[in-house]
Write a structure and sequence with these properties.
This protein has 160 residues and is α/β, with parallel strands linked by helices. The protein is built from seven helices and six strands; from the N terminus they run H-E-H-E-E-H-E-H-E-H-E-H-H. The N and C termini lie far apart (36 Å).
Length: 160
């Protein structure tokens, strides 16, 4: 987990009036957590609360990615194909106290599938667009990102 980005994101979550954010596999999840995965029939949802540590619902076969990203074991809600994902969603929603929560979601990426599971196990859950908070995060570059951009510019200059 990129601590600098995580800190800036939690500040943006609070500044946008959200209680937390939910990310599904894709560029934003990789940018924030370093977890590279893809959308599949096996749901994965990364939660970034405004005032607590990240948590994730993830298949057991990919749980090592969450551990490597530094997500605490008690906040990894893994599941396998035999037991299914409903229990992981129920446990995560209860543990994170998502009932009556305002959760920012990637409106163009989160499927109805994940959204309905969250609403089923977190009565009163409301969702809002997460894009403004994510755009504010990604528009400010950290030192490592600036160094990578400068390196790319130098390489492009040499190539030309």
């Amino acid at each position: 987990m990129n601590d600098e980005r995580l800190q800036r994101l939690t500040e943006q979550i609070a500044a946008h009036g959200l209680d937390g954010l939910a990310l599904v596999p894709g560029p934003n999840m990789a940018y924030v957590s370093g977890i590279h995965s893809h959308l599949s029939e096996r749901p994965i949802v990364l939660f970034i609360p405004a005032d607590d540590e990240p948590a994730i619902i993830i298949p057991t076969l990919e749980a090592m990615k969450a551990q490597a990203a530094g997500i605490p074991n008690d906040r990894i809600f893994d599941w396998n194909d035999a037991e299914g994902y409903h229990g992981a969603f129920q446990q995560a929603c209860a543990h994170l106290e998502l009932a009556d929560y305002l959760l920012g979601v990637e409106a163009l990426h989160m499927r109805v599938f994940e959204h309905q599971l969250l609403q089923r196990f977190a009565p009163g859950l409301q969702t809002a667009h997460a894009e403004p908070a994510l755009a504010a995060l990604r528009s400010v570059k950290g030192a490592a990102e600036i160094a990578a951009i400068e390196k790319a510019i130098a390489l492009a200059g040499k190539a030309l």
